[in-house]
Amino acid sequence: xxxxxxxxxxxxxxxxxxxxxxxxxxxxxxxxxxxxxxxxxxxxxxxxxxxxxxxxxxxxxxxxxxxxxxxxxxxxxxxxxxxxxxxxxxxxxxxxxxxxxxxxxxxxxxxxxxxxxxxxxxxxxxxxxxxxxxxxxxxxxxxxxxxxxxxxxxxxxxxxxxxxxxxxxxxxxxxxxxxxxxxxxxxxxxxxxxxxxxxxxxxxxxxxxxxxxxxxxxxxxxxxxxxxxxxxxxxxxxxxxxxx
Length: 244
Prior knowledge:
- This protein is mainly beta.
- The chain has helices at residues 110-118, 143-149, 210-217; strands at residues 4-5, 8-13, 22-24, 26-30, 33-34, 40-44, 49-50, 63-67, 70-74, 80-84, 87-96, 99-106, 123-126, 138-142, 160-162, 177-180, 183-192, 227-236, 238-241.
- The radius of gyration is 18 Å and the shape is globular.
């Protein structure tokens, strides 16, 4: 099949699973996805469970910024916890969508800030690459499909926003190669969506009925979840930057 050459209009990820999805100038994609994506997660040590955004939307109010060997977490108020997210020596095996994942709990000031924000005791943990990723490591949404739904790209927390002229054309790319920057992706199946998209991507407040709109407009899976965007794997690693 002919290689699809895509124009990239947005890139991003969240260094801590569930926290603010960062809009970036570029990402580096390797075989496991965007380097730095969901490198950490928040866990409930008592329940031995990784926190999910759909159950804890206030996670989206926390901005995580890694730099050098440091991790900074910032609340909307400006309150900040900053320092090395070094391993404490404690490990915990948690459930993540029915899959057991071994995580390394961290020391540092981050857990206290997270716990105060969420209102219960939590820990920050370092995750193995891909350990807390549901589905393939890269997700793509497109400009034409967003326009068709009148939706904001930020609600979908995708790795890449790609320019298209025709809504839903990305679903015809199944199995095809797509060139994005210096990387080449292999397109997988459509991405099922949950109630996270009804929450404001910065405040975490429920302020939309987008999920119901998608259910009416789009195919759904057996669980009743509507499809929007597509998964992808990385065939050729490389740097992907926003096209200006």
